[in-house]
Amino acid sequence: MRAPLQALTPERRGLLSRRIRLFAAATITYNVIEAVVALWAGNVADSAALIGFGLDSVIEVTSAVALSWQFASKDPERREQLTLRIIAVSFFALAAFVAADSIRALTGGGEAQHSLPGIVVAALSLAIMPVLSWAQRRAGRELGSRTAVADSKQTLLCSYLSAVLLVGLVLNSIMGWWWADAGAALIIAGIAVREGINAWRGDACCATAGPAEQDAACCAGCQAESEPAAVPVALGTKPAGR
User: What's this model's pTM, rounded to 2 decimal places?
Assistant: First the structure.
């Protein structure tokens, strides 16, 4: 039997909402810079993986803006479903473009060149994004917000993409394996599809790894809308209407 959730005070809910807006603002600021650098470097080097990474940064900005819009409301829960849809569609758009560009590269559309700026931006993101994702996910779980956790997974996806991108760029630079860049891009597309499906279904909350007690609290919060409220019946009495 699942233990009941501890109710959050209005002050605590307000604090968590402000933290989520702050994390969203930090995500927007960093990813705007990251997108400009990655798209420029990807265009120069004809790198499908770098261009996909830059587009992911653009989509992360879209996701963070949608989250900020949701929590700017006096009743964020009313905007949650639409925000999840925006996040999911952004994942699918990323996957479609990156897959098409990487297939173009693999079929002779162009060989990716060495990109030192790309390696640097991938390494920086690999160091920064996991910390930001963890902080936002922690606040979102405590608040029971599926959108905050979904957006934190978008941020965490940036970490995975950074690692994949870094490996592809280094192999291309050191070994001359230009196809490693396109292969890395296809992996990015596959991860984006999976996360898009989770966000669309509203599974972003419970699908996130973490301590068992946090998962239980988050899942219970996410399922609260879909589960009918229990009607307490005192012993020795009959339910109303019978």
Answer: 0.62
